Amino acid sequence: MNTSDRLRVVVTGATGNVGTSLVRALEREPRVASVLGLSRRRPGLTLTKTEWAEVDLSLEGDEPRLAQYVADADAVVHLAWRFQPTHDPVATWRTNVLGSVRVFETVAAARVPVLVHASSVGAYSPGPENGAPVSESWPTHGWPGAAYTREKAYLERVLDTFERDHPQTRVVRLRPGFLFKEEAASEQRRIFAGRWFPGQLFRPELLPLLPELSGLRFQVLHTDDAAEAYRLALLRDVRGAFNVAADPPVDAGTLAALFDARPVKVPTAAVRSALSAAWRMRVVPASPDLFDAVLRLPLMATERARRELDWEPSRTSVEALEAFLRGVRAGGGDATEPLAGRRFG
After folding, report:
1. N or C, fewer C-beta in 10 Å, the chain?
2. pLDDT tens column, 260-305
3. 110 vs 79: CA distance, rounded Å
4. How many CB atoms lie within 10 A of CB 264?
């Protein structure tokens, strides 16, 4: 392959959970000549093909810099996302929605041939009552109560308009389940349990009983397997949405087996009330609205990704969760600010 045929890829949110896995996957891809990783803070991560640049998508003043970085790209993979502060939805809206719109507008202005966007299972409307897995045609209106699902769903509508107005750009939307890897465990502990929750508490001997919530059933994927789906979507001539998740779906029985614990039925309302009180007191960052959304997530059918991308997860959902638990106990991390490894704090 000639050097001129190889791709220059720009990745937003390149220092996060998915971004670090994706840039490493692109490092190994012979059809990729170079990668420009964009983030708010430059990481201490040194890779052969990858360069780094700082940009804050929430700032209107950073638009010229973003345009400069995207100007000669062959493809843009948009992963950047801000989960906190959950008490200030305006702040997350500025980054997640307005920042994404800036990326899409910049892609359109530069006439970038390929845009791959990180959507989510959270973009979907609540699933069918019979619990059957949904295809990519299931409505994407999200759960209106939670900022995360609202924002993911809103961007689906933005992309609908983008595809109509800019047919020259091939747009792909990846909709993964929950993504875990050992190196992202400390970040995810901070995001959902809080900075001061000790990771060492996630041990079987400390959890003899595990709450069993009615309706709790969700899908998980190892982050490296999600990165492989992004790589394939980037390189193959495909368009539209792809569900990606590993088997089996995770429920209370799966979690109880992981912790060698006995599941105990607990009223959902009681758990929500306790979480709501802890969130209002700022003890935990995960909001009760997100809890409501998780209980309503549909299961996703992944046949399209397996058929059109030739994608297959290399790890089961249980193996992805085991990697997370190893990381959270040991304070696993990576050489970027978002993924800094710490057991506590």
Report:
1. N
2. 888 889 999 999 999 999 999 998 899 999 999 999 999 999 999 9
3. 19
4. 12
